[in-house]
Write a structure and sequence with these properties.
Blueprint: H1 5-17, H2 52-64, H3 85-97, E1 106-113, E2 117-121, E3 127-137, E4 153-157, E5 162-165, E6 174-177, E7 181-186, E8 193-197, E9 211-215, E10 227-229, E11 234-236, E12 246-254, E13 259-261, E14 264-265, E15 269-272, E16 279-286, E17 293-296, E18 302-308, E19 315-318, E20 324-331, E21 345-348, E22 363-370, E23 383-388, E24 393-396, E25 399-401, E26 405-409, H4 415-420, E27 424-427, E28 430-434, E29 436-438, H5 443-450, E30 457-460, E31 472-474, E32 486-489, H6 519-531
Parallel strand pairs: 1-3, 2-4, 3-5, 3-6, 4-7, 5-8, 6-9, 7-12, 8-12, 9-15, 12-16, 15-17, 16-18, 17-19, 18-20, 19-21, 20-22, 21-23, 22-24, 22-25, 23-26, 24-27, 25-28, 26-29, 28-30
Antiparallel strand pairs: 10-11, 13-14, 31-32
Helix pairs in contact: 2-3
Length: 563
C-alpha cells in the first residue's frame, strides 16, 4: 500500500475516531430475566393463586380501563378482549372454589398502540399473543422533529413468551417500538422470547409476517436527521446517541419479511436510529425474507448474534451508523435460491451521499460469515463483504467462507482516501473456500485484503485446491439436516491452524512497528475501547467461537429446526 503505516497509525485513528461519538458508558444493565415476576391469568398479585386480593384488582381494572389492562389479555377471564363485570364474577368463583384455574387456549390480538404507561405480556400456556397489522409501543411524534420525545410507553415481555405474527391480514403484521417507546424483552438461555409465524411448525416460511422494528433518537446522516423505516416502520433519528430504547436479550425473530408493497419489506430486526444505551445481545434472526439486521444510523452495539437463512444480506448498515459488534454469526441457507445480491456484510454510508456526516463506521471483531457456496450463481453478487458509497469500517478476527467473492469494495470516492488514512481496513481475518479474492478482480480490493501489515489469509476453493477440507465439523452445506450447526472450527489439526491463531485485540500491532502488545499499541487500543466499550479485548481466537469452548454461546436458545 502507498502509505507510511507507522506515521499515520495514531493520526489515522484520531481522524477516524472523530466519526464516532465517544460512548461514555455501555448499555444499561437490564434486570435479570429470573427477577421478572411470572404471573398467570387472573393472578394479579403474582403469588400463584387467585384470591380476594386479585378479585379486588380485577374490579378496579373493570371499572377503570377494562378494554386494556396493564397485563395484556391476562385479566380477561372470559376471553372477549375486555375486562368487565363478567370477568370479575368468574374470578370470584375461582377465588372461592380452589384458587386455581385452567383457561381454554385463547389468542390475544396485539394491534395499534398497546397503551401508555407499562404493559405486560405474561407467560401462560393458555394465552397466545398475535400481532395483527401494526402493533406499537409508543408513538411516532413526528411533530417533534429531531427532538427526542419522552418514553411514555413501556412493554415488559416475560421469559418464554411466544408472539405470533398474523399471516392473513391485508397489512403485514409488524411489531414496532417507536421513539417514545421502551421495551424490556429479555428471555433466558433456556427459555428465549420468540417472535414467529402464526403457522404451525413445518408450515412456516420466509415472509409469513412483517417483522420487528426499533426506532430511536440517535444521530443519522440523512438531511433533516430523520428516517422513515421501510414497511411503515415509523420514524427514527434524533440528536441523542446515548438514547435507550430498551433491553433485547435472548430474542429470536423468525419467518418475517413479508412485503408491504413491491420491494418494500421489513428486515428481521430494523434498528432505526437506535442509541447505544440500548442493550442488544443474544439475538437470532432465522429465515427472514429480507436482510437479517439493518442499521439506519444510530449507535446500537450488538454482541452474540446468529443470522441464519436470510434471503438477502445478513448484517446491513446505512445512514451513518456507528456501532461495534463482536461474536457474530451469519449463515445462508444453500437449499433456498435467491435472486437478490445477498452478502455477509453490506455497508453504505448513504445511498446518495458518499460524504455525508457522520460517516458510517462499524467496528467489528470475531465474526463467522458463511455464504451459500463459492460457485453460487443465483445472483450477480455474493460476497463476504460489500462495502461502498463512502463507508468506513474496521473488521478484525473474522472468518469468511463459502463466498463467490471474498470482498466487493467499490472504488468510488472516498474509498481510496479512507484506506490510506486507515479508516477502512480488514485485519487478522481469514477467507477460506472462496472463488476469488475480489468480486471484480479489482486491484484496489486485492490491495485492501492482502496488505501484509493486516495479516489476513486467503484460501481459494476446491477448484484451486482439490484437497481443501472443511473448517467446520458439523455444518452440512447441502441440507443443514440433523443437529444444529457447530460453528467451532475443527480442532485439533485445523487445516489452516485456525484453532491456534491467537489474535486478541491486546496483542495486535496497532502502531505498525512490527511488534504487537507494546505501549504504543495499547495506547491506540485504549482509545478504541474508550469509543467502543463493548469489546472483549481478551478474546483470543478468530471467528465467532473459540474452537476449544465446550459450551457454545448459541445453544440451546437458537432455533435451527427449519433450517
Amino acid at each position: 500500500m502507498h502509505r507510511n503505516w507507522r506515521m499515520i497509525a495514531l493520526g489515522a485513528f484520531a481522524a477516524a475516531a472523530l466519526m464516532v461519538p465517544p460512548q461514555s458508558a455501555d448499555a444499561q444493565v437490564c434486570p435479570d430475566c429470573d427477577t421478572v415476576p411470572k404471573t398467570k391469568i387472573g393472578d394479579l398479585t403474582g403469588d400463584g393463586i387467585i384470591n380476594v386480593f386479585d378479585v379486588v384488582g380485577s374490579v378496579d381494572i373493570a371499572f377503570r380501563n377494562g378494554p386494556r389492562s396493564r397485563r395484556l389479555g391476562a385479566d380477561d377471564a372470559t376471553g372477549d378482549n375486555v375486562v368487565n363485570v363478567f370477568d370479575v364474577v368468574k374470578f370470584v368463583d375461582i377465588a372461592f372454589r380452589n384458587g386455581q384455574a385452567v383457561f381454554p387456549n385463547r389468542v390475544y390480538a396485539l394491534t395499534g398502540r398497546l397503551g401508555a404507561g407499562t404493559r405486560w405480556l405474561i407467560c401462560d400456556d393458555s394465552l397466545r399473543y398475535r400481532v395483527v397489522g401494526i402493533a406499537s409501543v409508543g408513538e411516532n411524534r413526528a411533530e417533534l422533529g429531531t427532538t427526542c420525545p419522552d418514553k411514555t410507553d413501556t412493554l415488559i415481555v416475560q421469559v418464554g413468551v411466544t408472539v405470533e405474527g398474523d399471516t392473513s391480514s391485508a397489512t403485514p403484521a409488524a411489531f414496532i417500538v417507536r421513539r417514545s417507546g421502551y421495551a424490556q424483552i429479555v428471555g433466558s438461555r433456556t427459555n428465549p422470547i420468540t417472535f414467529t409465524s402464526m403457522l404451525a411448525p413445518g408450515a412456516r416460511e420466509r415472509g409469513d409476517w412483517g417483522g420487528f422494528v426499533i426506532n430511536g433518537c440517535a444521530v443519522n446522516n440523512n438531511p433533516g436527521g430523520l428516517n422513515q423505516a421501510e414497511g411503515d416502520g415509523g420514524l427514527g433519528g434524533g440528536l441523542n446517541d446515548d438514547d435507550n430504547s430498551g433491553c433485547y436479550k435472548y430474542l429470536v425473530v423468525e419467518f418475517a419479511g413479508r412485503e408491504f408493497t413491491t420491494d418494500n419489506e421489513l428486515n428481521g430486526i430494523t434498528l432505526n436510529g437506535v442509541g447505544h444505551g440500548t442493550l442488544f445481545e443474544y439475538i437470532q434472526i432465522n429465515q427472514n425474507a429480507d436482510d437479517g439486521i439493518e442499521w439506519f444510523g444510530g449507535t446500537c452495539n450488538v454482541r452474540h448474534a446468529v443470522l441464519s437463512g436470510c434471503d438477502d444480506d445478513t448484517f446491513d448498515s446505512d445512514l451513518g451508523a456507528r456501532w461495534c459488534g463482536q461474536f457474530l454469526i451469519a449463515i445462508h441457507d444453500p437449499t433456498k435460491n435467491s435472486s437478490s445480491n445477498h452478502n455477509g456484510l453490506e455497508w453504505d454510508n448513504h445511498p446518495s451521499g458518499n460524504e455525508n456526516l457522520p460517516r458510517m463506521h462499524p467496528v467489528v471483531s470475531n465474526m463467522t460469515l458463511i455464504g451459500q457456496a463459492h460457485d453460487y450463481t443465483g445472483a450477480s453478487l455474493h460476497a463476504g463483504a460489500h462495502i461502498r458509497r463512502g463507508a468506513a469500517a474496521w473488521i478484525y478476527n473474522t472468518v469468511f467462507t463459502k463466498w463467490r467473492a471474498a470482498v466487493d469494495i467499490d472504488n468510488d470516492p472516498p474509498a481510496q482516501r479512507l484506506v490510506d488514512e486507515d479508516s477502512l481496513k480488514i485485519a487478522q481475518s481469514v477467507w477460506y473456500d472462496v472463488a476469488d479474492t475480489a468480486q471484480d478482480n479489482d486491484a484496489f480490493e486485492y490491495e485492501v485484503i492482502t496488505d501484509p501489515v493486516s495479516n489476513n489469509q486467503v484460501f481459494f476453493n476446491a477448484f484451486a485446491n482439490p484437497a481443501l477440507p472443511e473448517i467446520f465439523t458439523n455444518v452440512d452445506y447441502t441440507t443443514f439436516a440433523g443437529t444444529p450447526p457447530d460453528f467451532r472450527p475443527i480442532t485439533p489439526g485445523n487445516p489452516i491452524g485456525l484453532d491456534a491463531m491467537c489474535a486478541n485485540l491486546i496483542d495486535q500491532d496497532w502502531d505498525g512497528d512490527g511488534v504487537g502488545g507494546q505501549a504504543g499499541d495499547i495506547a491506540i487500543l485504549n482509545a478504541i475501547v474508550a469509543a467502543w466499550p463493548c469489546f472483549d479485548t481478551t478474546a483470543c481466537f478468530i471467528g465467532a467461537m473459540d474452537a476449544n469452548d465446550p459450551d457454545p454461546w448459541y445453544e440451546p436458545w437458537c432455533d435451527f429446526s427449519q433450517f
